[in-house]
Specification:
This protein has 432 residues and is an alpha/beta fold. The protein has three domains: 182 residues, no CATH class; 38 residues, no CATH class; 184 residues, 3-Layer(aba) Sandwich (Rossmann fold). The chain is built from 15 helices and eleven strands. Helix 12 links the parallel strand 7 and strand 8. The radius of gyration is 30 Å and the shape is elongated.
Length: 432
């Protein structure tokens, strides 16, 4: 049964706005106000002297079409249900809206095409991805708990300056929501400008910093790899080879959107700890100590306590983890070792899985990325994790105290029968 909407919604929807008398009054839009505040001369040339000309572009076509699809999706979600909204074929609807809007601007452009089919397809693909992501994460961005949709494209007419009664501001609010428990409103401005969204433009804003040796006897020639794989993007990868002090390392962690560590067998992964303490999300292989830092949870919501019966989560037994972590589960698990360490799992990831997680972090809004990074830092300095010098020092003191309390002196000598050879056994359950 649908909830009865608050009375205030009906009052807003039925409220009559003041009519503009175009014989004596002048209406202005938000872009005009912004331009006037920025440069009155530019505003005068474009709007007063009439030099402004509308130019058809793929950006205006895309913006209009995406606006209409998103607003329709949100209307159905709030007025009916999220499930009903998900039944909308948004990809088909976006294609239809793009065709309609392009046809209008094509005719307005003297029947001259202003975009290529490939460009239109690229914009369409990005639009589908945007809508799919919003639908996937709608509960994070558009809650229905106490929230009601006032409307989409809500008209707004007012006098921006009481001294100039002949100037009327006229605009539309993309999405307006009302929160009944707090009696507050939320105005959402949908930004759909795709300027700078092309793959080439995106690449200019992204870079990977690798703090490592460029050439190593134990590895490969990373500079040669960079030239072969990224010949068109010479500034996509930077190498940091000098020894850095604490402040310099902290600066690197803070400017990064994510810290990546994908080693196949890792005892702990100190760079992840440092990144988490700096409030930076992590992308890491689910192996060794790296999985501890992702805070995987068991059925009871507790931080996994690995044991001989469950030595690793590298097979993805548990999926729930800290918001700051973007795990990459191994695609290949093999065995390697040495005389000192006869057997250890070598967990190797698929590059495609890594790309998926990098892409996921890339598309998270910066404010959300900052928030989940700070969640990681909060956990790292908590009593549960205790990744601080003070807490780790206290643990060492406690262990030393326990040692003194339980220590028993060894005998002066010990006789060992060299004919008895201890049988080597696995100290944990073998997993398949």
């Amino acid at each position: 049964m649908r909830k009865k909407p608050p009375v205030i919604l009906k009052e807003i929807r039925e409220k009559k706005l003041p009519e503009i008398d175009y014989a004596t009054q002048k209406s202005i839009s938000y872009p005009q106000m912004s331009m006037f505040n920025e440069c009155p001369k530019k505003w005068s040339l474009q709007y007063r002297e009439g030099h402004k000309q509308f130019t058809s572009s793929i950006h205006t076509v895309f913006g209009t079409a995406l606006h209409e699809v998103l607003q329709h999706y949100l209307t159905v979600m709030y007025e009916q249900s999220g499930a009903e909204a998900d039944r909308i074929n948004t990809a088909e609807m976006l294609e239809e809206k793009l065709r309609e809007e392009y046809k209008k601007q094509y005719q307005a452009n003297n029947n001259q095409h202003f975009v290529t089919p490939d460009e239109l397809r690229e914009f369409y693909d990005d639009g589908v991805e945007i809508i799919r992501e919003i639908a996937k994460e709608r509960s994070k961005h558009f809650s229905k708990r106490g929230w009601y949709l006032v409307g989409c494209e809500v008209p707004l007419v007012l006098t921006p300056n009481p001294k100039l009664q002949n100037i009327m501001f006229q605009g539309f609010l993309d999405v307006v929501l009302y929160h009944e428990p707090t009696n507050t409103f939320k105005i959402i401005d949908i930004k759909t400008s795709r300027q700078g969204w092309s793959k080439k433009e995106k690449s200019k804003k992204c870079a990977m910093i690798m703090h490592t040796e460029i050439v190593s006897d134990h590895g490969t020639d990373l500079e040669a790899v960079r030239k072969v794989l990224f010949p068109k993007y010479p500034k996509a990868i930077y190498f940091s080879t000098n020894r850095l002090d604490i402040n310099q390392l902290n600066q690197l962690y803070n400017i990064a959107d994510a810290q990546i560590l994908l080693t196949s067998n890792e005892g702990w992964g100190l760079s992840l700890t440092e990144a988490i303490l700096a409030g930076t999300p992590i992308i890491a292989n689910v192996t060794g100590g790296m999985q501890d830092q992702m805070r995987f949870e068991d059925e009871k919501g507790n931080w996994i306590n690995f044991s001989k019966d469950f030595p690793s989560n590298h097979r993805g037994t548990y999926k729930k983890h800290g918001a700051w972590a973007f795990p990459v589960y191994p695609a290949s698990i093999s065995i390697q070792g040495s005389p000192q360490t006869p057997y250890i799992s070598a967990d190797r990831v698929r590059i495609e899985d890594v790309v998926d997680q990098i892409n996921k972090v890339y598309h998270i809004p910066s404010e959300i990325r900052t928030q989940i990074g700070l969640e990681g830092r909060k956990w790292a300095i908590s009593d549960e994790a205790g990744f601080t010098g003070e807490k780790m020092g206290q643990r060492i003191i406690n262990y030393i105290d326990e040692l003194f309390l339980t220590w028993k002196p060894r005998k002066n000598f010990e006789l060992i029968n060299t004919k008895n050879v201890e049988k080597r056994v696995l100290n944990h359950k073998l997993q398949y």
